[in-house]
Amino acid sequence: MINFIQRIGKALMLPVAALPAAALLLRLGQDDLLGIPFMAAAGNAIFANLALIFAIGVAIGLSKDGNGAAALAGAIGYFVLTEGAKAIDGDIDMSILGGILSGVIAGLLYNRFYDIKLPEWLGFFGGRRFVPIVTGAVMVALAGIFGFVWPPIQEGINSLGEWIIDAGALGVGVYGFLNRILIPVGLHHVINALIWFVFGEYEGATGEIGRFFAGDPTAGFFMAGFFPIMMFGLPAAAFAMIAAAKKGRKKAIAGGMIGIALTSFLTGITEPLEFSFMFLSPLLYVVHALLTGLSMMVSFWLDIRHGFGFSAGALDYLLNFGIAEKPLLLLVQGLVFGAIYFFIFYFLIVKLNLKTPGREDVDTMVEESPRGNGDQYQQMATHFIKDLGGKENIRSMDYCATRLRLQMEDMEKVDEEALKSHGAKGVFKTSQKNLQVIVGTHVEFVADAMREHNE
């Protein structure tokens, strides 16, 4: 079940990747920036059709080969499900959840029927052409069911969303803690989807992100507290680990750590940095999760609202500065949390002799990410395949924003230390057969190079 939920979480990343472009267009088109109405309308169109985009994106993400037939099935499934259910009860609004559900079913049906063989007189409709047909048929049946069972579900979801939003500092604090603590198993995408895209409604927009960009004066509290952590806290933790590294290894560690700290500051992509200490010192990671929850609560107490289209990095901070509330105070909070992170991390690392990067007994190191040279990706792929026990030991491979997701034949053949020495930021075994290798934002290019080697 956890592996299945992780697959859904990974699939959610494809439609989420469209949000930065939508937020950029929407903000740049506003009167306080470039004042170009058609640009703002273009960005708003993406937010207005997020449910359909999720249906298409999740179907592609779950399909075994990312074929367009899965995307078409997801779109057809979404229209059949939502419009069919509305015909029974006009008050039904399945929103983003309807899109996600349609994408999940379409992706699963694609994997089951993409190579189906039909009788010769129906041969034209066989294979991938059959997938949108069977998806439509399944969704007709589900529309009939959901037309009666969805209203109480919808009411329950709305009540849960209202409770979390109305819970004040406790609500944002618990969410901030869960958002970080669930990252190791990849389940944070699921809770993010509910907070960012489902809970709350304002002038037709749903979810924290949609409502924030629609001008909801109550939106932004579930995002503001991340900026101090991603822009200041985690980079400060990286510098604490550099300062605490063994004397002869500071320079070697600094190169990699500064690179991933800068990634966190600019873009809000934190996994490469978090995985650099997550398994070496779980205590530090729990402290990090608690501090994230605290930052969310402090932002709420200070009545700070801010938002992002992708993540809480400097780029989103500057882009949405004009529609935020008390954004300068958020910088002050960030500086304070940066100091807190540095001193707590440095104290715990030195006092407890924690084996963070640069302090391990085994001679491993965090290497700098490839700078876009295709040969470097090929070299990393070659090393990774060898470190994973050879291509015959890799049953299947996929990737999400920063990590490779692999199914292995024999986990005993995986050399974790070699993977780290060749550029992996972390290695996580989710089961006896499932493995995640944290690579960084260039994971797609490494995965493509590995596939070329496996062909």
UniProtKB/TrEMBL annotation:
Residue stretches making up the PTS EIIB type-1 domain: 378-455
GO biological process, one term: phosphoenolpyruvate-dependent sugar phosphotransferase system
Keywords linked to the UniProt accession: Cell membrane, Kinase, Membrane, Phosphotransferase system, Sugar transport, Transferase, Transmembrane, Transmembrane helix, Transport
Ranges of residues in domain PTS EIIC type-1: 1-361
Record: active site: 400
CDD domains: PTS_IIB_glc
Membrane topology: Multi-pass membrane protein
Segments passing through the bilayer: 12-30, 36-62, 69-88, 94-110, 130-150, 156-174, 181-199, 219-245, 252-269, 275-294, 306-324, 330-349
Compartments, record wording: Cell membrane
InterPro entries found in the cross-reference section: Glu_permease_IIB, PTrfase_EIIB_Cys, PTS_EIIC, PTS_EIIC_1, PTS_Glucose_EIICBA, PTS_IIB_1, PTS_IIBC_nag
Subcellular location, principal: membrane
GO molecular function: kinase activity; N-acetylglucosamine transmembrane transporter activity; protein-N(PI)-phosphohistidine-sugar phosphotransferase activity; protein-phosphocysteine-sugar phosphotransferase activity
UniProt xrefs under PANTHER family: CYTOCHROME C-TYPE SYNTHESIS PROTEIN AND PTS TRANSMEMBRANE COMPONENT (PTHR30009), PTS SYSTEM N-ACETYLGLUCOSAMINE-SPECIFIC EIICBA COMPONENT (PTHR30009:SF4)
Protein name in UniProt: PTS transporter subunit EIIC
